[in-house]
Amino acid sequence: MLRELKRLKNVASASLALVIGIGATMIPAHAADAPIWNSRRFISIAHAGGDLESPHSTLYAMKRAVAAGANVLEMDVRLSSDNVLMIQHDDTVDRTTGATGPVISFTSLQLQDMDNAYWFYPHCWSCHSQPIEDYVLRGVRTGDAAPPAGYVSDDFRIPTLLDVVSTFPGQRLNVEIKDGPTGMAAAEALAAFINSHGPTNRYVVASFDDAILYHFKELAPDVFTSPGLNLITSWFGSRGALPGHRVLQVPPFYGEIEVVTQKFVDDAHANGLGVWVWFNGDEDDVPATWVRLMGLGVDGILTGKPAEAEPYIAAANAAAVAVTTTSVPASAPEIAALANTGNDNSLWALGISATFIGAVLVHATRRRAATISS
Under CATH, to which class is 29-341 assigned? Predict the structure, then answer.
């Protein structure tokens, strides 16, 4: 067993060396400098704090994501009945708490009292059909169960945006304004909030609703934004400039349509736009997909599994920074190092594939070591 463990370690080390070796050739000569907005070539964006590993949209999830290495925290905002910006995805509280009813029908204090980990089950943030004992964090918020070491009951509530900003000073935030009857008011509240809790370049703001986002941009023109659904759909056909926007947030596929292709990434970069990819759920938010997308040169992985994704993203970044590049000023350096064009893409994909192999072997080595030690 010890000989096998040693062999696995040697293979893993050789694979990671291959990553660095290939890395010397896989970055194009026209790659831009490391971005101002974030120092990594590929960034980890924790979807709802990492909702496939921790309770959706909780401070507990966000703290774990940041500890794992996430660069950006992604969240959704809605208004409470007393006009407080709450971190909440759905228009009701039913899917994550033990309560029921529209978010807008509760005050901010009532929402904060709710157990936002009530239905948490790993890899499925809205599964309500598991045996009760599987909801291992239920009751922490209400004091009926002890919090995990290093955390407190408040980490399991529905937080306000102010809670997040105060808990994570300086942390980059990707904030989506949810649509619905309070969407316009939420846009106004968010613009005012960012004006009071800057700097503005700490935030990227998005909304599926073009009208809501347009209204936000009228009030906060200097904040980085991602276009709404209609505009990004139009861009998918036209591939032109998107003045005022800095990043495209898209899924890998929309139905049967492959959205994120090499041409999509290249066209986005040519127009000064970063590409952040979100996923439909546990099935496509997986290592093979992350690695494939980084091979295409996307700039951010918007994952529900920030802890699991971190070794893959870190390995890809290690390969990238091992290279000396010739820099060309980028039109949106705050968002992405605009790399990967032309014939260099095959080498880039090869390097990322080696990264994937190395990360998998390291993971296998650790698991094997754990088995042997036990």
Answer: alpha beta
% of the chain exceeding 90 in pLDDT:
73
The pLDDT value recorded for residue 323 is 62
Other CB atoms within 10 Å distance of the CB of residue 94: 15
Residues 332-355 pLDDT 10s: 334 433 233 233 343 444 444 444
Question: What whole-number distance in Å separates Cα of residue 344 and Cα of residue 157?
Answer: 47
Residue 246, both tokens: 């800095």
Domain range annotation of the chain: 29-341
The amino acid present at 339, given as its one-letter code, is A
